[in-house]
Amino acid sequence: MAEAKEEGGELIVGHGPGLVHRFVNFAFQTINNEMGEFFNENCSKFEQDFDNYQKQGETLEQYACYQEYRGKLEEQLQKFVEKEEFDDEEECMMEIQRLVKEDLEKHKEQMKLMMKALKKAQKRAMKAIRRAQRAANGELDDVEDDVDEEKEEDSDEDSDSESKEGEQRTAPMLMFFSPTTLEQLVEMVMNLGEYQTFSMMMRMKVQQNRVMKLLMEARDGALGESKAIEGERIGEAGAKPAAADSTEVKMEEVKVEVDDDFFFEESL
Description:
This protein is 72% helix and 9% strand. By secondary structure, the chain is mostly helical. A hairpin with a 2-residue loop joins strand 3 (253-259) and strand 4 (262-267).
């Protein structure tokens, strides 16, 4: 899986940024697929009353379950290391850290270029608005001056004369354009091994099971009611021909007391 590239006349062997993406995909596939049975078997240990949780916090049983979870993650990580042809986990993580550092440097350069481009676009947009306003007011000389001034500024793209106020206006916009870094992806995976993340996942699993149970009970109740209604309809349809044939049918009302205020009638 290793890749080779040349830097400064020297051949460097590495796994490339794809290693980090494969690492992230492997981690989440492990959580969603490989660990599913473990979650189902142990989520009952996290069925804790909220008041009890607020007063006593996590239990020893829950922490022991977390330790088992960490052990299983370690087993899965070893499979990834072997698949990527590393000698051990340390070598694998060192390569991931190298790729993260390399990506951060590229990211900084990309952000600088993006900042410069956004500032230029912002200035041009403001000047276009001013020119349109002046043209509407008949100030044609000012419009021509603005056009000449803009040409002069465009010829000096590397100028560092932008104001701090302009930077503050542009910076929030970068939040919408900033690509996800490899460092952020790796942090997401590392958080999966933290106890708080594990505890949250297990408690969410408990809530999910409760909701599914309520949905199943509601579905079974609706099916039972539907069958009862259908049975009544079939009974009514079968009773009408019998009445037409003048067949003698004896009806006896039976009243059975269940509770003080609850009765039901049964026709025989």
